[in-house]
Write a structure and sequence with these properties.
The structure is a homodimer. By secondary structure, chain A is of the alpha/beta class. Chain A folds into 3 domains: 51 residues, 434 Repressor (Amino-terminal Domain) (Orthogonal Bundle); 130 residues, Rossmann fold (3-Layer(aba) Sandwich), CATH 3.40.50; 131 residues, Response regulator (Rossmann fold), CATH 3.40.50. In chain A, 47% of the residues lie in helices and 16% in strands. A 6-stranded parallel sheet of chain A has the order 2-1-3-4-5-11, with helices on both faces. The first copy, chain A, has a 6-stranded mixed sheet with strand order 7-6-8-9-10-12. Chain A is elongated, with a radius of gyration of 25 Å. At the A-B interface, α4, α5, β2, α6 and α11 of A face α4, α5, β2, α6 and α11 of B. The structure holds a DNA duplex.
Chain lengths: 334, 334
DNA sequence: TTATTAAACCGAAACGTTTCGGTTTTGTCT
DNA sequence: AGACAAAACCGAAACGTTTCGGTTTAATAA
């Protein structure tokens, strides 16, 4: 059916190796180059990447494992990575593990069997054993957004601690002392970091920590809604709240509406991640944003360096700063 | 490095063909089965899908081409399809073409070279020539959400016309006569269908069509914002607006806030697609929703029927009904 | 027991590339 | 023109499977 390299060789009278060399950017005499290109054109030849993959033991496929594609932050990161990867000739094989550890392990197994060249993941597990095994079997791993213990791989993070700290500081500077926080799943890296940033800000301002000001929203919309309700009910004096991711921000806003709370008069609010959502709220929300494009760029970069340049250096972690987009959701109390 | 089928053969004393047969579900004597399974365990054998693909000429990869992953409707469809596909042993190769015809063509070419078994796409182009070529070269194509002229392939749609008609009818029944609509890109299939549904409703209620009530939001947030502004400025009498997709709904809400318009008192509003967003708005928006899981299921089904059962029947189109989620964004004028 | 048939088993060949080691051609310098 | 080095070229072998046609083994019947 489809033309092969042999057909091109026969058609041009050249040898297999010459055609192969041409296809891989090797030097070929001008007149042969023309011959080959004519033949390719004529026979609609396309190199069979599968055969090539078998021979070279490289598929030029990067596996991507994420907790939820249905999460704007992740989907944007994926879209960006896919773009860059394809520009480098790499295909993207996507696995959504639905925030499920078992599914994540299955995805790793699946991608390993598919012989992907590397795996980029926003991991769900706490322990990185499966990823570690994968990496030890020769498939480089890059994690994004979260760092795993027991997994010695390149890692691209945003500085959630500092970003959160400076966001909470804004609230403090506006005169707030009773600041609630809606956190995500307890054992996730970013949750811990963001909580630390929150503590940093409180400690520095010498505001006492108060556990009743912390509610867990599990990174879900419903969780965010519940958490907001819990915070409001438990803390009459609370004047501001900081929400640690997009989904929970949506949930919190749903609940804010449900309860008829007026922002910022009754409650100041800082959310996370999604500029469009923030702008669509009344009043516009102030949010901490993450440099999505840079995250994607750095992650792909790490991967390609190991793959293309055969980089063997020890794993390193890249930390990117967050940004802040001001809205009208912070009330100045002073 | 990794064990091959030959290693298993050697280890068990059996022949290559027997191992292969076992791996593909063929019959093997009980004692040999045990032998083989032991060897596989021991040597950590995993079949090399690449080699298999070369031999069988099937990659068990489905290519997916969508306009924007960064669009909840598409990303949810993709997530759902990926889930089902992987359960059937198929991998998902993702291409985001950023709503760009040229990139779409590149993606088709890319996936063809990668020898995917089939392509599922939400197409961007008007003419399906590239997809048609792909299909004629033996790679089945299924389009989702949009139907292309000149492309004879299976197609999964939602009945946008009827869905839109009945949504607009709700507005009419609430007493509205001056109903604006924010449409998407002109040449996209869904745009036309939704506009037809809008006309259907108006015609049936004997409301005169008025071009100044139609604004094009280009399916983007900014476009939606601009369109809403345009509609409001041009039509003082407009009491309701119907917005044809999620992005434009977000944009429209941003602009609603910008202009200080109060919903539903000053303007009734029906949006599209995203339940969470609708619930997070004040007041909660009424929206038309699409049966995302069914869409994904049907699309994958169409593909697998052709791939697995070798179905050769002529292309057929599946049409799914929309649903409606009521909020508090419609003011009764009567 | 022997004949018959079905079920298991077998290895070589093939899928379409790349790569290795060696050969030919080209170009340059005397 | 001859010598030499460098560049271009070459085909066989290999990557790890599946498949084909044929052979052995087991199961059943006579």
């Amino acid at each position: 059916m489809a033309a092969t390299i042999k057909d091109i060789a026969k058609r041009t009278g050249l040898g297999l190796a010459t055609i192969s060399s041409y296809l891989n950017g090797g030097n070929v005499r001008e007149k042969n180059r023309i011959l080959i290109e004519e033949a390719i054109e004529e026979l609609h030849f396309e190199v069979n990447e599968i055969a090539r993959g078998l021979k070279t033991n490289r598929t030029k496929i990067i596996g991507i494992i994420i907790p939820e594609l249905n999460n704007p932050f992740f989907s944007e990161v994926v879209a960006e990575m896919e773009d860059i990867l394809r520009n480098h000739g790499y295909a993207t094989m996507l696995c959504d593990c639905r925030t499920d550890e078992k599914r994540e392990a299955e995805a790793i197994e699946f991608l390993k069997k598919r012989r992907v060249d590397g795996v980029i993941s926003v991991p769900v597990t706490r322990e990185g054993t499966y990823f570690q095994e994968l990496q030890e079997s020769g498939i480089p791993v890059v994690t994004v957004d979260r760092k795993l213990e027991g997994l010695d791989c390149d890692c691209v993070l945003v500085d959630n601690r500092v970003g959160t700290k400076s966001a909470v500081e804004r609230l403090i500077q506006a005169g707030h002392r009773n600041i609630g926080i809606i956190t995500g799943k307890n054992d996730v890296y970013t949750t811990k970091e963001r909580l630390l940033g929150y503590y940093d800000a409180l400690d520095e301002a010498e505001i006492e920590r108060d556990d009743s000001m912390i509610a867990n929203g599990q990174f879900t919309i419903q969780g965010g809604a519940n958490a907001l309700k819990e915070l409001v009910e438990k803390n009459e004096k609370m004047t501001a709240v900081y929400v640690c991711n997009y989904e929970m921000m949506v949930g919190a806003m749903i609940e804010v509406n449900e309860l008829g709370i007026r922002i910022p008069i009754q409650l100041s609010f800082i959310g996370f991640d999604n500029i469009e959502f923030a702008k669509a709220c009344v009043p516009r929300l102030s949010i901490v944003t993450q440099p999505i494009k840079d995250i994607a760029k750095e992650a792909v970069n790490c991967m390609l360096e190991r793959l293309e340049d055969g980089k063997q250096t020890p794993a390193h972690t890249i930390s990117l700063p967050t940004d802040f987009m001001g809205g009208e959701s912070i009330q100045a109390l002073n």
